[in-house]
Structure formats: structure tokens, C-alpha cells
Amino acid sequence: MRISSANAYDNTIETLQRRQSDLSDLQTRLTSGKRVLKASDDPAAAARAERALAAEMRSETSQRSVDASQVIVSQTESALGDAGELLQQIRETLVASGNASYSDRERSQLAASLKGMRQQLLAVANRSDGAGSYLFGGQGSSQPPFIDKPAGVQFSGTSGRLQTDTDTELPLSTDGAATWLNASTGNGVFVTSSALNSVSGSEITGATVDAGSVSDPSALFPVPDTGYRIHFSSSSTYDIESYSLSSGLTSYESTGTYQPGVAIDLHGMSVTVSGTPTTGDQFNIEPSTPTLSVFDSIDQAIAGLQTPNRTTAQRLQSTADSLRDIDASMATLNLVRTAAGGTLNRIDNETSRLATQKLSAQTTRSNAEDLDMVEAIADFQNQQTGYEAALKSYSMVQKMSLFQYLGG
Amino acid sequence: MGTGALTSLGIRAMTASYAQLQTTSNNIANVNTKGYSRQEAQLVTAGGQFTGAGFFGRGVDIATVTRAHDDFLTREASLSTALAAADSARSEQLLRLEKVFGTGEAGLGFAANQMFNAFADVASKPQDLSSRQVVIERAGELARRFAIAGEQIDELQGGVTVELKASVAQVNDLTKQIALLNQKISNYSGTTKPPNDMLDQRDQAIQDLSKLVQVTTIGADDGSLSVFMGAGQALVLGSQTTSLVAMPDPYDASRVAVGLSTAGGNQALPASLLTGGSIAGLVRFQSTDITDARNLLGQMALAVGLQTNEQQSLGIDLYGQTGAGMFRFGSASGLPVVAASGSSFNSGSASVALTLQSPSTLSGLGVSSVQPSDYRLTADGAGGFELARLKDGELDTSFTPVSVVNGDVVEGFKIAISGAAAAGDTFLLRPCGTAALNMRLDMSNPKLIAAASPLSGTLGATNAGTGAIGAMTFGSTDVAANANLPVTLKFQTTIVPGQYTYTWTNAGGTTTVPNVWSPGQPIPYSGAAASDSFSVLITGVPVAADASASPAVTSDTFVFGANSYTSADNTNAKALLGLRDAAFVGAIWNAGTLEPGASVTDAFASIIAHIGVSVQSATNSAQLSADVAAETEQARSSKAGVNLDEEAARLIQYQQSYQAAAKMLQVAQSVFETLLQTAGR
């Protein structure tokens, strides 16, 4: 075939240019380290890299949420630790106040120290996270959430808790009402309390009742809205009565003989009355409710200690009741603290999960768009050799012309 | 026979050799001339002289000078050049368009994700103004990136318009040249000798023309060539030309259409008739690629903007007010309004405007969200209109046209028509064409981010089950204005084991009839007013009151009321963050069921893939057609081109024959002299 000289030159020049541009293209990739510089280099990989980038950012975002939660939860955990110590001190003070040799004055001194501790406890409940929100603020609250009112400390806010986004769902606050104000009254199942003497209408002076225990869980409170009463018809006999919690309507159930220190069994509950009851003394047994406020318990203990001229039985009853209530509140706080510990643990797991997720997203992205350096360098050398060969052959071929040999 | 014959032979041979040397030298001189075809002097014997001894040759004659030429190869080269030019024009433009859609950190998907992710920090600290400020900054960045992308596409369109106009002018120049050459060539039609150089020039002009627009040629007896384009529109007929014109698009003056200037005025050529040449590539890029890019970009801008605005409107900001829109499209806040462009041929006075609808309006009506398409509205003259979807600038046959009247909501927008349209008036509707260009941030105060929900739900203090409050759904923040709040949700078991019913008790003490609860389904609450209604998802298993159980079991309760502490709440911020995963881009209703679209990430990833594939295939076909063109050109030039080695050999050959002819004269002279000497003695 004839070769047109001009066309041959054109073709050679174009081939050289193409090789050169390939070489420069590969060099750009080598310097940037990316195989996919624009979408058209590999559309599928570019789309995959785009998704992986979104996943990577998402992991980073979730990690920020986790960090935010960790700050709050660890502060909450430490606040609950402080509260536990304070309650322990309160408990010790209460135990000390049971000392029979103390006078009314000594007891009111103890009451004063209890007041101080109560203020500290309130400050713990109102602790802020240092950035404008309250650790125990629930879903939102007044500032601060716990307010000392004449009727006792009240939570003014929405119960529940704030959470981080749906990917992590970690707490950003703790339900203050449930933590501080909603412990179970009594022993957790029922509440025993001494009522006023039905004959004299004054407080019971000679007998006390313990917190009781459950003897048969299946027999507890068979009828809704009902409480039971141990009503002494004499110093040695008692009637068991039931009454409606809402209307107070009383009905007789059975009669028993009183033996001091021997438990009275009724409806799966076992309650012990001690001391010397008088006719008309009565003790109520009601279902436990989640309404026990730690502040109310302390307030009652303080009021008990400040009341002068009480009988030993009265003092015993109020100390026992206060200890029971403080213990119940402590149990609730400990439960919340355990939950906080569990959350911190979950945060650690979440952090490592997110790190793994991020790494896998980065790997996907890198696999999609990064350059295989070894392969690329080999390619580059290959192309370089090719280009050199092209240049050399061109320089040789262009010398070959018949005119070269027709000199002279 | 005298010596005259010998001299005459020598002279003829010298003339012939000289002519051959001349054509060879001309070939060498024109080795690099574009379109030049190798020429050759054709020799014939001068015939014989009859004598008694037979015929004596009288030497050589120059018959003519021919050019090495192959009509088929020349036509083939023009055609492949036309296709290569179309492909390369489009692929060059597409490479520019691709840069509008940056990938990775430079991309729009990244910016949108960054904005949504920033809501996670607002959710972590709703009162913190700095994390709110980050959202504002990110939202501003997103709007800017959309607007810049829109501007870049506009610039590309501007470039295409300028290039098309210039190309049209070049075409008209070339057709005039061809007509002139036709005329000159036909002047020589009386002679039998071809005007080689003019033919070459004409071929070259046609080759140049093919780079701009694909043409076919038909030769006439007088040697002139007629040039046709597309479906037989004549550009050159003999020495007459028809001009191409770059006409403004009847709907959009920033675009141009290619037309022919005829006696009856300018007539637009449909894009489908332009099959080759850079003009075809540019027109295709304009009608397909730019439109697609604008619409895809606009669809995403609208989806992100409107969905964010709507979620904002369902929340409460730090001032306790219903959240304001975060983005606007154009100068006014609120739902974007786009004016439709009427055709410049319309005779009626109607004008059409579109109002893009909020996602909740659309899902309420069961209408698909905005699609990345243009539409054409054709008036029937009696107040009715027909709406058809366009694809690549022509009617989309897969879309069944729908009849619409003023106020109808279709395909994500509401049509408002004012004035009277004459029958046959048409309007071009581009619901998302300008959205990206016009996207702006519409919020500067970080306190206006609506992070809180108007409703709050709490669990009853005695709840023993694992039931928790999931998503609360409502139509507007007016839900909190219901006088009957708080309302209490309570569960009971039924006689069927494991089946629960629920009741609502409002603040007035009114309790609803029990309804069966199916776990995983939202529980609706209907208030007196439509705006009071909401629904809530209860996750986990609540404990339900069981009358037959002993001891008695009490119901778990869930209380819903107006949110009293909105500054600390993050519910709506979490919902805004949730838009990151929501498949809202391009959701469509199909026979009563909603087919979800794509999330922002997926939508952007598929735009990237779409553009990437377009560029890749355009580059590949440009490469392929360039190779084909190079090959046909090589085939043509191997026939018509000059090879220097060949010419060098010929030069020597003709030089030697010239020398031999000269020798003949010398011999003739010496023969004559010998004769004179002999006679002179």
C-alpha cells in the first residue's frame, strides 16, 4: 500500500501525542494516589466511593453523639456516687439518733446536721453538666429542675430522658423524677404504718410495727383498691379489717390473739407488731406506690427528731420508718447508677463499633478509588519504555528517505 | 525520412519528460498541502507514420494531467469525519459538565450530608448556639454549591450558544465557497481536461463542512456538486446556496436551535435530523445533557430544600415559635414559584406559573414528588390543557399525557394559569430546571432552628412493661394547641390471648372506644379539629390491664401533652438528622402506593454514575469514531496523497528520460551535421 508522507507524519505525531498524554494522565494518578479522579474514570467505583464517604461521615457524626452522651453519663454517674455517700452519712446519722440515751436536744442537733446534708443532696440533684443543661432534667425542665416548695421538693419538668440520634440512642439526661422522687414506698411491695389510736385519736405510744415481708406472693392484695388494718380490740386480741383506699369503707375479716414479736400473717404478708399495744391501736398495710421522695424521707426523719417528748416506741417507729425509706431511695439511686455504669460500658462498645465501621467505610472508599501503587508504577515504566521506543523509531524512520541517497 | 523526424521525436520526448518532471515537482511541492491529490501527466504515443516499411512511431504526446482520486474514499472520509466531529464535540462538552458534579469532599452529596450530620450536634446540645451555627454554615455551603453548579451549567449553555452561532457562520462561509467553485468548475465543463486543483479545493471544502455538519453530495453533468444535509435539505444547489441560521429557541432565548433560511422564513431543523458534525454534537449536548444535568441537580436541590423546610415547620425554635424555612428558591421565602415560558409563536395572552408543592401536600394528595423532567403544556383553546413530558427535547412517549386545568396539582407542582390561551398555544414547564441556580440560604439566626417537638410524651410512673414512645407524627405545630391535651394512652388485653386494645382519655376525661393495637403500627389519635390529630408509634411491649388476672394488673399509660420545655428538647433535630437516610428524592405514587425515591447520598451517587457513564461512553465513541476517521483518511490519502520516496524515484526516472531525449537531439544534430559535412565536400 502507498503511504502518503504527510499522512504518515500526521499519524506518527498523533500517536506520540497520545502516548504522551497517557503518560501524563498516569503521572497525575500516581502523584494524587487516586485511580478515580473524576466520575468517568470508573462511574461505578465513583458512586461506591460516594456512598462510603457518606458512611464514614456518619460514623464520625455518631461518634460525636456518643462523646456528648459520655460526658453527661459519666457526670451523672459521679453525681449519683456523691448522692450515695451523702445518703450513707444520713443513714449513719439516723442510726446514731436511735441511741436511747440521747436527749431531745441532742436529737435536734442531729436534725440540724441532717438538714445540711439534705441541702447538699438537693444541690447534687440540681447539678448541671456545666454547659447549660441539667443532669437530672428529664425531657426538659425548669432551671434548676428540683425546687424546694412548702410541700417538699418537687420536680418541675417532663419526666423521661433525652436521647442522642437513632443510630446510637444514648441518654443525654436522666429522668430526675424517677431517680429522686419515685422510689417504692415501704418494703417495695406493701407499706406498714401506725395509724392514730381509734379510741383516743392520738398517736400510738406503746407498740411498733416492722416493715414486714412477703410470705406468699400469689396471695398479695387479691382485691384492687384495698388496704388492710390490724386493729387491736384489746391489748391481747386484734381484728384484721380491710378497707377501701379510695372511700375508706371498712369491713371486718378475722380475729387473732396478739403475741409480742410473733408475725401476723395476712394475704401473703407477714407483719410483726412489737411492744405493748393498747385497745384501739391500729396499723395500716397498703400496697406500695412509686412515690417515695428521698427529700420527703429526710424531711420526715428531721421532723421526727425535732419532735420532743416522744415515747421510746414512737422514736423506734420513726427511726425504723426513716431507715426503711432511706434504704429504698438508696436502692433506687443505686439502680440508676448501675444503669449509668451499664451505659458507659455501652458507650465503650459503641465507640469501638463506630471505629470499626469507619475503618470499613474507609477501606471500601480506598478500594473503590485509590490507586494500586505497585501496578501503577509498573504500568508507568511500561508506558515510559513504550514512549521511548516510539520516539526512537520515529527518529530512525524519518531519516530514511530516498532523497538522502540521491545526494550530489 | 529526414532528420526532422528525429528532432521532432526528441523534442516531443523532452516535452513529455519535462511535463512529467513538472507534475512530480508539483507533487513534491504540495506534499503538505491539505486536500491536494497527487497529479500525474498521462502520456500517449503520438501515433505512427505509415511508410512502405510499415509504421514508424512519431513519439509521445501529453494526453492530460490527472489527479489520483477515489470518489468513494473521499465520501467515506467526509462521513467518518462528520461522525467523529459530532462525538468529539459532545465529549469535550461533557467533560466540562462532569466538573460541575465534583466527587468526594468537593461534591454536593458531601455538603448535604455535612448539613444533615450537623443536626446530630444540635440534638446532643439543643441549647448550644455554636452547634446551631454550624448547621447554618453548612446549610449555606450547600445552597452555595447548588447555586454555583447551576451557574456553571448556565455558563456551559452560554458557551454552546456562542459556538453554535460561530459554527453556523462557518457553514455558510463554506457553502458559499462550494457554490463559487461549482460555478468555476462548470465553466470548464466544455473542455475534457479536469480542473484538478479546483476539484481538490471543493473536496477540501466539503471535508471541512463535514466537520461541522454531516452532508451528502450529488454530482451533476456540468461537474458541479450539490450538497444536502439531514433529510435532504439542500445547502448548495449548483451555484445557489441556502443559509443555515442559528435561531433563538422559541421557549428560551438563551438557547439556540439550528434552522434553514427559506423563502417562507426561518425554519427550525429538529435535532433528530442532525446526525453528524460538531453542530449535531453541540445540539445533542444542549438538548439532552444540559437539560438532564439541570433537572437532576434541580430535583435534588428542591428535594433537600423543601424537605428540610417542611421538617423545620414541624418543630419549635428557641423562641418557642414554629420553625421557619431554612432555604428559599429565588428571592421570596416559601414554596418556590417558577414561571413557565410560553412559546414565542403563542397567539393567546395566557401566562403559566408553577408552584412547587411541599412533600406533605403531595403525599396528602397522592401525587408524585417532582421528577427531573421538562413538560410541555398545550392549550385546547377552551380552558383545558394537555400536559406531556419531554425527553431529550422531544415528547416522551412513555408518559401518557394528562389533561389539566388551572389549579391542578401534578408531578410535584401546582399549575396556575392566568389569561386566555388560544388553541395550540404551548408552554415549556421546567419545574426543577432553575432550582439549583436559585437555591439560597434563608436563615441567619441560629436560634431559628426548630430542634424541639411541639408534643412531648411521658411514660406512666408505674409502667412495668418495656413500651417506649417512638416517632410522633402530626400535620403541623398546631397539634400542641389542642385544648384537650394531655391525652393518655392506655392498654388492655382482650379475650384473645396476646391481643391488646388501646383507649385514649383526654384531659376532659372522655375515653374513646377500645381499638385493637397491632404492634409496629402507629396509633392514631383523632382530636376535634383536624390539626389536633397525631399518631404515635409505641415500641416494645407495654403491660396491659388484665381483669381476669390475680393479683390485679394495672395498665401501662403513656401521656402526651404540649411540650412545656422546648429549649431542651431535641426530637425535631433528630428528625432533621433522620432526613439523611430518608428516601425522599423523586418518590412517586404508583396506583395508590408510594414508591420511595432515593436518599440524598444515593441520589447524588447515581447522578455521579449517570454523568460518569455519559462521559465515559461519549469519550469511548469519540475515540472510536476518531480511529475510524483516521483509518478512512489513511485509505483516502494512500490513494491521493504524495509519497516522497515515490516522487524521488520518479524524479530520477523522468530526469533520465529527459536526459535520454536530450541525447536524441544531440544524435539528431550530429546526424544532420554528418549529412552536411558529406554534402559540403
Entry summary:
The complex is a heterodimer of chains A (408) and B (681). Chain A is an alpha+beta fold.
Write a structural description:
The complex is a heterodimer of chains A (408) and B (681). Chain A has 408 residues and is α+β, with helices and mostly antiparallel strands. Chain A is 52% helix and 16% strand. Chain A has a 5-stranded antiparallel sheet, with no helix packed on it. In chain A, strands 4, 5, 9 and 10 form a 4-stranded antiparallel sheet that branches. In chain A, a hairpin with a 2-residue loop joins strand 1 (140-149) and strand 2 (152-158). The model of chain A has no long low-confidence stretch (mean pLDDT 89). Chain B has 681 residues and is an alpha+beta fold. Chain B contains 11 helices and 33 strands. In chain B, the strands form 10 sheets. In chain B, strands 14, 16, 17, 18, 19 and 22 form a 6-stranded antiparallel sheet that branches. In chain B, a hairpin with a 7-residue loop joins strand 9 and strand 10 (256-262). In chain B, helix 6 (277-313) runs antiparallel to helix 10. The two termini of chain B are 22 Å apart. The mean pLDDT of chain B is 88. The chains are: A alpha+beta (408), B alpha+beta (681). Chains A and B meet through helix 1, helix 2 and strand 1 of A and helix 2, helix 3, strand 24, helix 9 and helix 10 of B.
Instruction: Please estimate the helix content of chain A.
Output: 40-55%
**Total DSSP E strands of chain B:** 33
Query: What portion of residues of chain B is helical?
Result: 40-55%
Largest interface between protein chains, with number of residues from each side: A-B, 69 and 75 residues
Termini of chain A, distance in Å? 30 Å
Rounded to the nearest angstrom, the radius of gyration of chain A is 41 Å
Number of strands of chain A: 11
Which oligomeric state applies? heterodimer
Mean pLDDT of chain A: 89
Mean pLDDT level of chain B = 88
Characterize the largest beta sheet of chain B: strand count, sense, and whether it forms a barrel: 6 strands, antiparallel
Report the radius of gyration of chain B as a whole number of Å: 41 Å
Number of helices of chain A: 8
Task: Label the structural class of chain B.
Answer: alpha+beta
Share of β-strand residues of chain A: 15-25%
Q: What characteristic shape of chain B results from the CA principal axes?
A: elongated
Strands of the widest sheet of chain A, in order across it, are 3-11-6-7-8
Helices of chain B, by number, come to 11
* Sheet having the most strands of chain A: 5 strands, antiparallel
Note poorly predicted spans of chain B: none
